[in-house]
User: Fold these one by one.
Assistant:
Number 1:
Amino acid sequence: MSDNSNIETNEITINEIKRLIAFVKMQYKFDFGNYALSSFKRRIERILSLNSFATIDELIVKLQNDSKFYDEFLREVTVNTTEMFRSPSLWRKLRDEILPILANYPSIRIWSAACSSGEEVYSLAIVLKEAGLLHKAKILATDINDVVLQKGKDGTYWNRNMEVNENNYLRFEGKYKLSDYYSKKDDNVVFDKSLIQDVSFKTFDLVQNEQYSKFDLIFCRNVMIYFNPELQNKVVDLFGRSLFMKGFFIVGEKETIAFCKSSERFETFSAEERIYQKIKE
Ligand SMILES: C[S@@+](CC[C@H](N)C(=O)[O-])C[C@H]1O[C@@H](n2cnc3c(N)ncnc32)[C@H](O)[C@@H]1O
């Protein structure tokens, strides 16, 4: 049977979703209450299907008795898809228009929020290195999911996933070859550890909304799309507070902050590449 037909048989109601969210909040202290309902529901239906659970209660019982399964659940629900140099034209804009500004600062503080398995972080480090700025940069790399964060720390990626990364790097028009930054080991590639010498990988939940520090550049790409407008507002407010004046904020190519209350703190630096700049405290 295909995934789709399974998903149809496992169609769930809004009340069941609410019950599941309340349970996860109580047991695991994670609040999915402000995730966009339609995509959250689709992810749960997929989990039911993949695990052959006939009802939401079977899923709740499994979560109740198996905290390891919660890690898998979190991974499925939070969608960790990522690529190096994802949206190559953004990385060109960063190199050609933003880094020349940041190059004048004594140090450059960057936050890659919701960085998944770190591909965005290695892309950043490579762009900085090619601009001769890596030594000045301190990068905070955060995600809610420890398992993907560990992959980022290890800098080890499957060989078979590298084609898309190599192609993106070519489209970015980097100075060298992406393979100059890694070595091959069995079925994997291992990135040069010197790239992440000044990167701290930390677990951080955007829903908790606590300010960490202040930054010159914040990336939060392809995660707000999974949040409802209320949570998007809170998160954009957090990033507004977490940026120095004139700091840059970059979201995913299908995202915008135009409808968020805190958008008045920002002006658009590049509409095409979804880059904003803080203009008001
Ligand atoms: C689709 S990936 C995006 C990765 C990368 N930023 C990119 O654009 O390629 C979304 C990431 O958001 C993370 N995430 C989801 N909810 C989160 C939350 N509440 N706090 C922090 N990270 C979260 C997921 O674990 C996942 O790694």
Note: The chain has two domains: 3-78, 88-278.
Number 2:
Amino acid sequence: MTLAPGGRNCCTLLVLAICPNPTIDRLVILDELRPGTVERARENRAYPAGKSVSAARGSLANGARPQVLVLLLTDGAGWYLDTLVAEGMDVAVHSCPGRVRESIIVLEDDGRVTVLNGTGAPVDAEAWDAFLDGAVARIRPGDWVVCSGSFPPGVAPEALSGLVAAIAGAGGRLALDTGPAWMPAALTGPAMPALVTPNLAEAEAILAEGVTVEHTWVGADALERAAAAASGLRARGIDSVVVTAGSAGLAWSTEGADGVLPGLPVDVRNPIGAGDAFMGGLVARLEQGAEFADAARWGMATSCAAIEQWSPGGADAGRVAHFRSLITA
Ligand SMILES: Nc1ncnc2c1ncn2[C@@H]1O[C@H](COP(=O)(O)OP(=O)(O)OP(=O)(O)O)[C@@H](O)[C@H]1O
Ligand SMILES: [Mg+2]
């Protein structure tokens, strides 16, 4: 059932962001977290989230007109939807019974971040198929389709090959960023994502097969390893790969070209959604006709602008332009 129409205009530039596992990000900001004690937060913030939503925010900051299709549980949906629409986001909802999940993000003054991801209600095969049908119905050949993050309980990794095939069958170009628990199932072919953008730890786990990781680990050789991982993933038959490496920057590889971008210094407020903001900015610029190398620069500028503010993936267009001006060719 579609609650918010979000109908698309046949002529508008559009990035479709499909969000299968939305969450409300509840930010708790304090000086120091001491587990096992009673604390008082200095500040609380809440944002409608889910990693595809963060990517859509990154696209919006780059002049694209993203539409978010969200598989939203009914209980708590009102606030989620109203807040996202008030941001200026075009949202369509496929509704399922249950309560919207919530994630607690504790941000301490020394920069340490603790994330407690919530779990949503199980989604059955019928609801998943209907959600996917809704996505396919919105795709025009050549459109970018962004999908980032986890999948709800009830959606097994095997469903990923069906998702990739359905989007490819509709002519969509899928930009996929999901963890090592799901990504391998998306790369079994014959249809493949057009673009994947894992972080370094995820990329290395996907290539190693069977290893799961939860955080980015950045060492002195991070960009070298990111470049190796990007070319290793491209060898699996993916057109374009970017491997991000947190503050170290990123490496990219596409048909006939590759490169690295060292990270920029950023005064970080909320680092959650950095990779998604990157992907949203990259895809928006590709959709506008930028060369991959230049689109990657805009993507990095978007991630920098996103992490210096609170909203996951949200970025001010002026700040994106500022960071873009700091990146030399
Ligand atoms: N601390 C930081 N300082 C500067 N730039 C950063 C920092 N963290 C992230 N970035 C920028 O954002 C990009 C993506 O970050 P990262 O590799 O952490 O993504 P991620 O782990 O996928 O994040 P998420 O999954 O939360 O979206 C990096 O390539 C870099 O350009
Ligand atoms: Mg990520």
Note: The radius of gyration is 18 Å.
